[in-house]
Amino acid sequence: MYLYDQYDQAMVDARVEEFRDQARRRLEGKLSEDQFKPLRLMNGLYLQLHAYMLRVAIPYGTLNSRQMHALADIADKYDRGYGHFTTRQNIQYNWIKLEEAADLLADLAKDEMHAIQTSGNCIRNISSDHFAGAAADELVDPRPYAELLRQWSSFHPEFSYLPRKFKIAVIASDTDRAAMRLHDIGIQVVEQDGELGAAFYVGGGMGRTPMIAPCIKDFVPLDRLVTYSEAILRVYNRFGRRDNKYKARIKILVHEMGKDSFTQAVDEEFARMLDEGIEPPFAELERIRTFFEDPLFETGASEDIDRSDPDFALWVDRNTVAHKASGYVSAVISLKPVGGIPGDATSEQMRLMADLAKDYSFDELRVMHTQNIVLPHVRKADLHALWTALDEAGLGSPNLDTIEDIIACPGLDYCSLANARSIPVAQKISERFAANGKTEALGQLKLKISGCINACGHHHAGHIGILGVDKKGVENYQLLLGGSEAEDVSLAKITGPGFDEAGIVNAVETAADVYLREREDGERFLDTYRRIGMAPFKEALYG
Amino acid sequence: MDNMATENDRLIRYREDEAVDHAAVTVDSFLDQSSASAVRVEPGDDARELIPHLERLALVEVNFPAFGDGRGYSSARLLREAGYEGELRAVGDVLVDQVAYMRRCGFDAFDPDAPLDESDLEAALDRWPEVYQPAADSRTPIWTKRHA
Question: Which residues of A390-421 are buried (b: 16+ CB within 10 A; e: fewer)?
């Protein structure tokens, strides 16, 4: 994985000192809260309902065991012994004191981590495929391109006061595991006539106006990747709407200009920029690639798995994914125990995951946008030992991509924007399906819960989505069906009137029962919904 | 005269030449008349309209009515890319925590609404030992230094 050199370290250290100075001036009253707010946000520091929340960047979701240990230590030293892994492959801490934030950032910097641009109206931490470098179906490892863009976008002098936040995802497989087309820029590394290049999708997003990004350029040569990105950002910075924060994302600009006019504006800007020397030397991309070379996989590693323990066999079937090296799999550690808080991990669990990564996965972990953790490179022969250790620590839930593998935002339990709680709904749904035993029969069913219209819980992209709203002072939950964040991307539709907390749990089970009744061989919930449409679900829910 | 003196107190310049001593006109009136040599660019203006006339400009003021509106950074940089070498002055809600990025985008003068603390300004401009990406200043990006 990528390691800092003296330059990267110097920049992160300088940022810590800058923030320490800014926090001091805020505490001394030399900076107003309005002036301080964008500065703290660009260092990941939000003011939430009860305390400051700090979001740590995990570039393209990749960590080593030393960094995971550091995250555990921070949870103990500055928070209440746990952290929350997020839908953008980051981690956030919920109980931070402003006076201690600079020390926390300094601790992060010691292990090559930071909270730079994890919030604010700037280019955010860049996300990627959580199986990068391991997936059997990828063209190349997408992370070198994400790292190059990380450097380009860090402390960018022109693009730090954009109309609104800006999120980029990079993938290199036709299977989309990063919700690429629901980002401001989605990049897919592709091959054309034996050359690698990048397809650019621009103007996707969730929030209150969900949109799927159209492809504006199907092939940008790799030695123009940064320049083309810069051209897009300049068009957005100059012409994105600033009169209304709800219409300020680039998706609105692309929509209002039209894809063709927007693309033309980008192409004109790109043509002007070509002589400006914006592109890094190609040697830099080659240098970065050396950090992402394959680990030394054992040749001839055994393909056999002893499936005599049924609990273990179920976990293998549910939570492991095909790997490009024979005898290996990627193993998913579920942070979705029945009745638990999706994405939360205690410091002890973090330390165990770190140690297991060191023992069984070439010292590497990944954070998934589904709020789970991956050990990307595990020998099949080691799976039983791994599972045993996970199971003893409450980390062995066999529920990847099932209805119990729920994405949920922090909701009204923490978030100052939320209208309704998300966590208790997620807990009750996972308890319901664990009790009624339908999880196995339902198979792949992605359920996503947001506590407000901002859609941090990706409800638009859920096979089943739940949106919490405020209805005259009472929490109310709308049900949505038919979304997908994957390569078959689609936006979910609302079924009808919302439900109270008990009612939404029943409604999810009702929708699941319609699927179990109507499905044909091999169909997932989403496939059945797409075939039969909304009507049978409405009939069962409201009929 | 008092107003003028106050303004000069706040004005910070990183240029050797004499400051232009007459007021800047709007982009629209600049494009209508040939005599002005100072223009003020508002966030919604298209700074590219000035490009055919750069040789008669000695001062471009870029106004920041609110510091969070970042359009002025692009206005500055595209003028420098087009070859403008005159004074580029950030005016308005210009705060010490934004001046380092402004310098990188080509601003070489600042006329902030509220005076900047001298030591805070010095610290801000000395903050970054390196830069990751090229901009309108002459600093060499890290990725170039790595392969020099």
Answer: beeeebbbbbbbbbbbbbbbbbbbbbebbbbb
> Does residue A53 surpass a pLDDT of 70?
yes
Fold of A6-110: Sulfite Reductase Hemoprotein; domain 2 (3.90.480)
Contact B70 A151 (CB under 8 A): no
Q: Class assignment of domain A407-542? A: alpha beta
Residues of A in contact with B70 (CB under 8 A): 121, 158-162, 237
Per-residue pLDDT band for B6 (boundaries 50, 70, 90) equals very low
Task: List the one residue out of A407, A396, A489, A487 whose CA is nearest residue A447.
Answer: A407
Residue-wise burial string across A472-511, b where 16 or more C-beta atoms lie within 10 A, e elsewhere = eeebbbbbbbbbbbbeebbbbbebeebbebebbbebbbbb
- Is A4 touching B (CB cutoff 8 A)? no
How much of chain B, in percent, has pLDDT values that exceed 90? 86
The whole-number pLDDT of residue A243 equals 96
How many A/B residue pairs have CB atoms within 8 Å? 106
- CATH 3.30.70.3340, domain A310-392, yes or no: yes
- Report which of A467, A468, A460 is spatially closest to residue A419, judged by C-alpha positions: A468
Top-tier CATH class for A142-289: alpha beta
Whether residues A158 and B70 touch (CB distance < 8 A) is answered with yes
Furthest-apart CA atoms within chain B: distance in Å: 54
Residue with tokens 């309902």: A49
pTM of the model: 0.96
Q: What is the C-alpha to C-alpha distance for residues A362 and A375, in angstroms, rounded to an integer?
A: 9
Predicted pLDDT at B8? 66
Q: In angstroms, what separates the C-alpha of B68 from chain A's closest C-alpha?
A: 6
**Average pLDDT of span A149-171:** 98
| Domain chopping of chain B, boundaries | 2-145
Q: Can you tell me the mean pLDDT for A471-500?
A: 97
For residue B61, give both structure tokens.
Answer: 């003021």
- Model confidence over A196-251: pLDDT tens digits? 999 999 999 999 999 999 999 999 999 999 999 999 999 999 999 999 999 999 99
What is the 3-state secondary structure of A274-287?
CCCCCCCCHHHHHH
SS3 call for A86: coil
- Out of B97, B104, B130, the one facing A157 most closely (by C-beta) is B104
Section A409-437 average pLDDT: 94
Q: Are B145 and A278 in contact (CB < 8 Å)?
A: no
